[in-house]
Amino acid sequence: MKKRLLTIFVFLLSFFPFLGYAQEQKSLRKQADLLYEQSSYAKAAAIYERLAKNKKDDVDLLVRLANSYRLIKNYEQSKRWFQQLQYTKLLPISELLNYAEVMHCNVELTESRDLLKEYELITGTNEYIKMRVNSCDSAKAWMQSPALIVVKNLDSINTPKSEWGAWAINDSVIVYTAERAPFVDKRKGTYSRTGQPYLGIYERDLYAKEKSKPFDRQFIVSNYHSGPLLINAAHNLIYITRTYNDSKTIREFNSNNGRISGIRRLELWYSEKKEGHWSDLKPFKYNNPENYSVGHAALSKDGNTLYFVSDMPGTLGKTDIWYCTKLNDGSWSSPVNCGFQINTDQEELFPTIGTAGELYFSSTGRLGMGGLDIFKAIGEKSTWKEVTNMRFPVNSVTDDFLFTPTSDTTGFLSSDRRGGKGSDDIYSYLILPPPPPPVKEVIVEEVVLANNKFVGIVVNKLTSKPLVNVSVTVDNKGEQDTAITDDRGRFGFELKPGEECSVKAEKEGFLSDHKNGLKYVKLQESPSVVILQLDSIILNKAIKLEHIYYDSGKWNLKPKSKTELNKLVALLTENPTIKIELSSHTDSRSSDKANLILSQKRAKTAVDYIISKGIAKDRLVAKGYGETKLLNKCKNGVKCSNAAHQMNRRTEIAILSF
């Protein structure tokens, strides 16, 4: 009997770990489900990931995991779990649309279209599904035939976090919305949906070395999101969208699970600048966050019409663009819907007004590239006669929004497109002049008689804005002509059939740029525009040289390093007045003294190579900094990965004078 009891006791002891494990799994699942229902998708995904290792046949868990990643725009991870559901034939029909969205955002347009057609075949068709199918086709076509617009990541501003919604204060300073950075905001707390910091309003000088700073401290003190913003033309009135964060949390009942979840709505606030200072923020007259959202302001050129986004009663879709007109006493009239010519049954968001009074906005309810697309509308208030998609490359297969012109041809936009530095990035854009009209060729004894003039444009490399009064030298087999760029950065030059030439642009305070081997036949191809980009000279600003490699503890140049240094030689040759410092940096491994000596030898080796290519010795300074200028926390005694140490091993140049 005792032996039998002992056997039972041992069995129970062996069962308890499994029982504890099962209870732990059940507790984690409840926690993850609650986070998901509260829209805390980043935290929910982390727990679902743990559970999925042992629950690969749990359809609801895997669907929630895939959608958690989708909703925080981690489309690669979302695709991974949707594909697992598909391969195991566990994917619910109801999730085909979400899976198609993820594939579309991963630029797998054929696969996205196939999933949409499968859903359409099973459930029947409607206008929304047709629009999404057609968007797969239009995205392919527009990417193969891009509009005459150059879009460039503003990588001096963007970080792995979110930056978006830029407004130009002048030629160098922008104000924008960003996830709060620890160097300007020490408070803790993150947005539960993404796991990232809350949004605030910042400003940055594009040409200064200093980091971003709060635009005004009161615009960042909210315990929740602040942004986007609108600044009027006189820069003395600002409207800010803020997330309602009253102490009485707004709550709604979820009938599916009997739980109560918090929801947040938007409000508009405004401030006026008087005697150099911004007034305290005041609420917009028609805020009503207990019932609906109001946000995303845009102001007409004369300041008498205020556009905004809301889901107030009378909204045609999920969110619409509305407007108010200014009354004689300075107050705003009752809101009026912009109408079905602008609004759809989906989302219209982020209106802005262009230099000619045109309306730009983003929508998910019109044929486009996918996600939020930027559209341009001609008209005003509730009367609109033309709405056009801005097409690729302004739009991408993900979300594109807040198109803010700074001139007729330049400005900024925001996007979470692939290839950026963060979740949302700020991009500059430049609208190119149209190509010359088609050449009418008359062939007489194999001689082509035609209009041989071509168009060039010179822009600021950082902002993509046109540069005026730039001297451009056109060299055609030793025969040189000089042109000066006009108020749109343009210049013209002539090239005859069978010939080729080079052009070089120079302007004081900028590094020059050139194009060689321009051929007549090649330039006949669209868009027939030569673009030169001038980089502004910022003294003592560190510029990293890529692909400069050394063996561990050595200072001999590798062949690839010489290729990169040859580019620097060309730069110094084209700009014969500049003097530079070439510096070498190590990580913290090895002793401080040894690293200082090694870095000096590496810097000297690189400088000696440049001198050997004909650059005067007095234009170069070799400086080894060892580990004295680390870019991260990996100092002596701190354990770091190889990748973290690699960030500190670099070669840089800085312009000392010009």
UniProtKB/TrEMBL annotation:
Superkingdom of the organism of origin: Bacteria
Location of the OmpA-like domain: 537-658
Subcellular location: Cell outer membrane
Record has Membrane as a keyword: yes
Cross-referenced InterPro entries: Bact_OuterMem_StrucFunc, CarboxyPept-like_regulatory, OMP_bac, OmpA-like, OmpA-like_sf, TPR-like_helical_dom_sf, WD40
UniProt keyword Transit peptide, yes or no: no
GO annotations of cellular component type: cell outer membrane
Pfam families: CarboxypepD_reg, OmpA, PD40
Keywords: Cell outer membrane, Membrane
PANTHER family: LIPOPROTEIN YIAD-RELATED, STATOR ELEMENT OF FLAGELLAR MOTOR COMPLEX
Protein name: Outer membrane protein/peptidoglycan-associated (Lipo)protein
Originating organism: Solitalea canadensis (strain ATCC 29591 / DSM 3403 / JCM 21819 / LMG 8368 / NBRC 15130 / NCIMB 12057 / USAM 9D) (Flexibacter canadensis)
